[in-house]
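Dear Dr. H.,

I hope your travels went smoothly. While you were away I took the liberty of generating a structure for the chain from your last submission, since the lab meeting agenda had it listed for discussion. I wanted you to have the full record in hand beforehand rather than looking at slides cold. The sequence, exactly as received, is reproduced here:
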Amino acid sequence: MAQTGNFKSPARMSTLGGSAEVSASGAVTGGKPRESGLKGVDFERRSFLHKVVGGVGAIVAASTLYPVVKYIIPPVKELKVVKEVKGKLSDVADGTGKIYQFNEDKVIVINKGGALTAVSAVCTHLGCSVHWDNAASELACPCHGAKYKLTGEIISGPQPKPLKPYKAKIDGDSIVITKA
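The corresponding predicted structure, in token form, is as follows:
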């Protein structure tokens, strides 16, 4: 007759008679019962493998998500605040304009007959960059047709406010731009 089930189960041991010793189920080799080992520690192979696979999965997920998050969230730009910006006078020929970065704003310097005028180069409607139209003698925004005078005052268009004025002066062969 073939045996099925646990050979040392308490039910089987009781059928063998009173002379057989009933040990704790799941005896460990060496004759030491499982309960007398480390208390509270679960040494099951399956739970250990679940923890290892979960840890490896967490490492893979973190190493995949880190570059994605760094790409989506741009780095913080530290802007150096200055009181003036210098440029070359030869960069702004008569009848032209040049845009300079001034702290967080862009400033357009226009040379009209040797006189320099500086205003913000950012349209007050939606933030597009304006350009100098020498033929019409006006600043024009290509996005929605806003038009400004040389001094930044509104001529026409959807913009709510005039352009912010700046000071531009000639210092030798360079241009010095400061707040108005």
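Two observations you may find useful: The beta strands are 84-88, 96-102, 105-112, 115-120, 131-133, 138-140, 147-148, 154-156, 165-171, 174-179. The radius of gyration is 41 Å.

With kind regards,
E. W.
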